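Here we describe the complex-level prediction in full. Unlike the single-chain runs in Section 2.1, the three entities below were treated as one system.
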Amino acid sequence: MRSAVTHSYSVGWRSLDILQLVLGMLAVAAMTISMWAALYYAPPASNLAGDEQLAQRIFYIHMGCNIGALAGFLMSVIGSIVYLVKRDLDWDRVSQAAIEVGLICGMGTILTGMFWAKPTWNTYWTWDPRLTTSAITVLVYLAYLLFRNGIDNRHTRARFASIYALVAFLSVPLTFYSARLFRSIHPVIYGAENVDAQGGFSVGPTMTQALQINLLGFCILFSALLVLRWRQLRNEDAVAELREEIA
Amino acid sequence: MSKKALSVEPQPTPPVHIDLAAHPITMRLDGGLLAYLSKVAAVFAKDVRAELRGREIFTTMTAFGVLAVLIFGMAFDLRVPRSEMIAPGVLWGVVLFAGVLGLNRSFGAEVDRGTLPSLLLAPVDRSAIYFGKLFANLFFTLATAVVILVVMFFIFDLNLFQPYNLLAVLLGVTGYVGVGTLFAALTANNRARESMLPILLLPVMVPVFVAGVALTAGVLDGKAWEELNQWFGILAAFDAIFIVVAFLLFDLIWEDA
Amino acid sequence: MSENGLIVARNIVKRYGRKRVLNGVEMCVPQGQVMALLGPNGAGKSTLLRIISGLTKPDRGEVLLGGVSTRKAGHEIRRYIGLVAHAPLLYDNLSAWDNLHFFARLYDIQQPAARVEAVLRAVDLWARRYDPVRTFSRGMTQRLAIGRAILHDPPVLLLDEPDTGLDPASAETLAQLIRVLGSGRRAILLTTHNLERALAWADSISLLADGKIIWSASTEGLTTERLQQAMIGLGINRFHPS
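The structure predicted for the assembly as a whole is:
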């Protein structure tokens, strides 16, 4: 199949395969270490007790998902800009894959946040800036995917989706800033500005290490999933093109 | 240059004299800002005139807006002691949802009637179409907002016509149609056009919504300028950033008409 | 292939999906000539016209109008193009006068009122100028669409099946317009399904099939029968003349 489709990809099939294999293995290792760090290595928070103390460990995974969502957004912006400049559909696939993986990470952020919030704040949801921004970001991602669905022409779809991705990305900082100006009860771990924040805990050195391990681990996981999805999209498009050629 | 009367006789037998060359045209070819602005004005005038003849946009937006205010009024009447508590949210929520109806039509009508290529054939940067329609949408949506404010005045017994609030509505709606006109162009040819526009638009409009609600609430609470100017800053920043970005990206939409 | 044409298409390739609708179209319409483009349904005639008018970009190849490449020229080159498409491209809520006046403003026409009047009289719609376009018959709408296309007196005129659905009187007005316009400094490219009209109106004929121009000839001395034979000989029998 590969020889019949004449494309010059910026990253060739073979390189992508190798990259996926390497990243996949790294991701397995990294996530194992991350889970160990979060659930075992990190000491329990000293100022909390009982359920709250146990639930605090979700924090590491929560931040990990957060960085995955952020990475997704950034990669999609890069993919969109490069597509609009070069008109290479492969970059549009990167953009789409980044948003799909970012969406999963974003939903993970919200879910882990909710599971952490219930024992800590006794509520699943509040309209604080970070949660608000996460929710809006997930909606923007979903809208992107739904939007793509409604356009048949490949290049038109890539072009329009790129335009939307860029505009949506620009709105996120403003959303965050405006929500923050409104109110916040989200614990601010680094930099305590808000005296109303509840459930905060001081982060010692071991906890910082555990956090860093998790952030790195989730970055690797994100990359592995991104490359996997990217490859899948390439395959899908190649099959579709062959089908059109035969028809 | 004297005007020559041209005669066209409808029956085919006598030879017909069509002499367009007798009235040569002069076009201003130097382009420039004035020519650009005149085309923006032409698109704006055309949209407004077409709406006055067709009355699709304003009536639907206003009808929806009034209905929504009434429904919210009824819904909250039983539980909410003071209408100031929900008025800001109702105002901005209803304006946002009603605005989508008008935005949908701004490019939807062109696509449905097949007139879009005629605009694209014009010898002008496509952003002129963006600005022309932006001003038209601004006009219609502000008119709808005024009607909503009037209805809220009666239903909620609140005077929302105070200057800071009106300024907030002006800035907020400007940002709204700035992004909305771009997204309307993006969704005009989409299969799920009507539902796609609000799904794309509303999440991106959250800063405007939050700022708008904060400002209306602040005005109702009697807050001073010092407390309100941060929100105006957000609205102004939103308007500036997004209109510039939309202006830059608008041309990319039309490569395959 | 003479390169001195007012309308020159070089190696135009256009794909929709994987299907090559246009696969290396070469064409040249000299100044002062009317060319009729014939071809079976779905051959890509409309697509080619849209590419020449600049509405669609070709995947490969270029279009030269008066020697200027449309790819490199900015929006100003659209001033020199007039297009009559399948859709009338008119606002049916507005009157004929409002429509043409709007387009006159878009094309920077000085003294638009005088020009709009001249064009409306030329297409025989002056009497109905204040009526909304939605009340017009098909023939009247088509005449107004042609009026819109010639409003700014473009040297390049592209007509996509302008005679479809026209009553004989409107068709006659159209024929006269083409006769008057298709000389001097203009070039007209039109598509049609009607072989008789193509032979009567045009100076030359080109045949588009399988994504290429497969045949080109002057209409001088060419009869309908000879044209039909040539087409059958070239394998085009999916064609319904008049």
